[in-house]
Specification:
The complex is a heterodimer of chains A (448) and B (272). Chain A is of the alpha/beta class and 448 residues long. Helices cover 27% and strands 19% of the residues of chain A. Chain A has a six-stranded mixed β-sheet with strand order 7-8-9-4-10-11, with helices on both faces. In chain A, strands 1, 2, 3, 5 and 6 form a five-stranded antiparallel β-sheet that branches. In chain A, helix 6 links the parallel strand 8 and strand 9. The longest helix of chain A has 18 residues. Chain B is mostly helical and 272 residues long. Chain B has one domain. Chain B is globular and about 60 Å long. The chains are: A alpha/beta (448), B mainly alpha (272). Chains A and B meet through helix 3 of A and helix 1 and helix 6 of B.
Chain lengths: 448, 272
């Protein structure tokens, strides 16, 4: 179920005959003796929102640049919207909107002049509609009132918005966005997230989102691919990756009692928090309650995207240690403490991560299943980095979704089984607080 | 694409500042000459300056001779060196190429822009030279409006105008070698400064070797060797030999360097 076991191993949700928005086969880039990208087989069906994840330096940006014909592959092929890149770049790239690393603009010109120059610099941007398209794109990203101020006077967030506007200018069929929410404040991030979901839903725009921000991907994407050291170690739907682990996490004021009842099904205990092997949370609940055990919280255990990714990857390549034999031991906490982008408040129970053994590493792009098998593989105690936070349910939402004090003991499948695509948005989204900060004009938008 | 690049150049304040500076030097020279009435003795100083005191019509040619050795090449190197490396440094190169502007198209557009810049600079120098020269030194009523050529024979005003035009074309063409060098370096580095300085180093080396007797055997191949040959256009009759050689040599440099620039740029990994 997880992991691409073969290039064609997984049938995409859509019809197989449809031209993939992005397809790469054996994509490889070497710089001298360094292999930056190593045989990546990407498959992004049209209409998808695809999260491309990986630690810093794992080859994400190089891959994105190859998709856009900026970096020429050493081996392998790239197809974007059915056309080979870089050979047929001219016939197809104008239908692609891109944000590669940071946005860039001519500092002495204003937003409109910049967009106009970029639009005129290539095919597919009709001069007749240019003005209207520019106005619309600026409106979409919340820069409609920006006026003629030169871009060099913009804040980081405004530049980011301008970069996204440039990507949207020709109503692209495919958006390739590298860290699109860089430099935006939380509200700006949410606006952009909404905008992207909206484009995907209304215009069917395929979105390829390269990021190391797990929360962003978790909120947006339907499918994810994970790269590590230039290899695609995982490519699957988010829902499949975050399928139940076969355990249930519960809290009870009567832990001793519960342990007695649960007997051999207990997998882990810390204080009043128990991890129990059970496939049916409702049944477990009934059993415990039948014994008169009080339960304050009970949820099906799901792996967080963070756990999935940490298990699949080895380490940040921006971390340079003294010569130590590579990657066996406790890299999980290394990662979690090392790179602040990765240490989202640990939301999951301390699931033992499967330690990756060397044989598995040497097998290229054939990732091992990432979910721990129901029983074995529990090498250690909770990793310090992943903390011993209480369980949680849905995705990594802001405050609302969690730890209801009272009768929250229901398995609440509606919450935990949430499909990732509507796990998005709206932590209350109070319309009042949407007057974005780096957004010069009062937004009308959907406040309903 | 070419239109876009031209607009970008014309909308940049820097372009106009550079042209104004290029123009300022000959104008300053003209004012000093007019005030002091002390010209360099014949055979010394920039070409034509001693003749200018008698006839301002020659001042455009003198102005070209003043800016040719340094000011013009420096400005051309700056503008050409900025062409690709400047976009790379600003980060806009990747967006232009992903747009997709097309690498060859972009390079051609940049070259045309550089050409236009050189032409603009030369035209501005000559036009202001003409007005400054004629208003400060008069049009020399000597010999019925004829101008004394470098070789002593008279030139009719018509001939003088034609030859000034030829001189402009030749000077502009001489700059193309520098431009090609700077554009080539600009595709190699992401630093516009490095590209411009590299092209200037190339010129300084050439000028230095020209003065060295030991470099006699390579002298005819140095890029700056025939630059001042435009003076020959003001001889009567025109002495074509060096001019033809100069054009040939510049063409060779331009072809080789632009070929290298294209080969490098069209296969380069854009990592900026």
């Amino acid at each position: 179920m997880t992991a691409t076991s073969a290039p064609s191993g997984r049938v995409p949700a859509g019809p197989v005959t449809a031209t993939a928005a992005i397809r790469t086969v054996g994509l490889t880039k070497r710089y001298g003796s360094i292999t930056a990208v190593d045989g990546i087989d990407l498959d992004v069906p049209p209409g998808d929102i695809y999260g491309f994840l990986g630690p810093n330096g794992s080859g994400k940006t190089t891959t994105v640049r190859m998709l856009l014909g900026l970096v020429l592959p050493t081996a392998g092929t790239v197809e974007v919207l059915g056309a080979r890149i870089p050979k047929h770049a001219r016939s197809v790239l104008h239908r692609v909107g891109a944000l590669v690393e940071a946005p860039a603009a001519y500092g002495h010109l204003g937003a409109r002049a910049n967009l106009s120059i970029m639009d005129a610099a290539g095919p597919g941007g009709s001069r007749r509609t240019r003005r209207a398209r520019i106005d619309q794109a600026l409106e979409q990203v919340g820069l409609a009132g920006v006026g003629r101020r030169p871009v060099k006077a913009y804040s980081l967030g405004m530049r980011q918005r301008l970069g996204i506007a440039a990507a949207l200018l020709r109503k692209p069929d495919l958006l390739i966005l590298d860290e699109p929410t860089n430099g935006l404040d939380p509200r700006g991030i949410q606006e952009i997230r909404r905008l992207l979901l909206d484009l995907n839903a209304s215009a069917g725009t395929t979105i390829f989102l390269s990021s190391h921000l797990l929360a962003e991907v978790e909120h947006l994407c339907k499918r994810v691919g994970v790269v590590d050291r230039g290899r695609l170690v995982l490519q699957d739907s988010l829902a499949a990756l975050r399928a139940p682990t076969g355990s249930v996490v519960l809290r009870t004021p009567d832990p001793e009692w519960a342990v007695g009842v649960l007997d051999g099904d207990l997998r882990e205990r810390s204080g009043d928090r128990l991890v129990v092997r059970a496939t049916d949370p409702a049944e477990l609940n009934a059993r415990l309650v039948g014994h008169g055990i009080r339960i304050t919280e009970l949820t099906e255990q799901r792996r967080t995207l963070e756990e999935v990714v940490l298990a699949a990857t080895t380490g940040s390549s921006d971390r340079v240690d003294a010569a130590v034999p590579p990657t066996v031991g406790p890299r999980a906490e290394v990662l979690a403490t090392d790179d602040s982008a990765w240490d989202r408040p640990p939301a999951g129970p301390p699931v033992p991560l499967p330690t990756r053994s060397e044989p598995a590493r040497s097998e290229p792009a054939r990732p091992e299943p990432v979910r721990p098998a129901p029983d074995d593989r529990r090498p250690g105690q909770s990793q310090p980095g992943l903390g011993s936070q209480p369980s949680r349910s849905g995705s990594a939402q802001p405050p609302d979704g969690r730890s209801q004090p009272g009768p929250g003991w229901q398995p609440s499948p509606s919450d935990s089984a949430q499909p990732p695509d509507d796990a998005e948005v709206d932590p209350g989204g109070s319309a009042a607080d949407r007057a974005g900060s780096d957004q010069p004009e009062a937004r009308s938008e959907e406040s309903a | 694409m070419i239109g876009v690049e031209l607009m970008k150049m014309l909308r940049r304040p820097r372009t106009w500042v550079v042209i104004a500076l290029i123009d300022a030097l000959p104008t300053l020279v003209a004012f000093l000459l007019a005030l002091t009435d002390v010209g360099p003795r014949p055979g010394t100083g920039p070409a034509f300056l001693s003749a200018v005191l008698n006839n301002g019509v020659l001042f455009p040619a003198a102005a070209l001779a003043i800016v040719l050795p340094l000011f013009l090449p420096v400005s051309v190197a700056i503008v050409s060196g900025d062409s690709i490396a400047g976009e790379a440094q600003a980060g806009t190169l990747r967006y232009l190429l992903a747009r997709p502007a097309g690498r060859t198209r972009l390079l051609v557009a940049k070259l045309v822009t550089v050409l236009v810049f050189v032409a603009m600079a030369v035209v501005v120098v000559v036009v202001t030279g003409y007005f400054v020269g004629t208003s400060l030194f008069g049009t020399g009523q000597l010999a019925g409006g004829n101008i004394v050529s470098v070789s002593g024979e008279p030139l009719s005003p018509h001939q003088a105008a034609l030859r000034t035009l030829l001189a402009m074309a030749y000077v502009a063409f001489s700059m193309l070698g520098v431009a090609a060098m700077a554009v080539f370096l600009s595709t190699l580095t992401d630093s516009p400064l490095a590209a411009a300085m590299g092209a200037l180093a190339f010129l300084v080396a050439s000028s230095l070797l020209l003065t060295l007797d030991a470099a006699d055997s390579i002298r005819p191949y140095l890029p700056t060797r025939y630059w001042l040959a435009f003076v020959d256009l003001f001889r009567q009759p025109i002495l074509w030999r060096d001019i033809v050689r100069g054009v040939g040599l510049q063409s060779l440099y331009v072809a080789v360097l632009l070929g290298a620039a294209w080969a490098n740029f069209s296969t380069k990994d854009i990592k900026s």
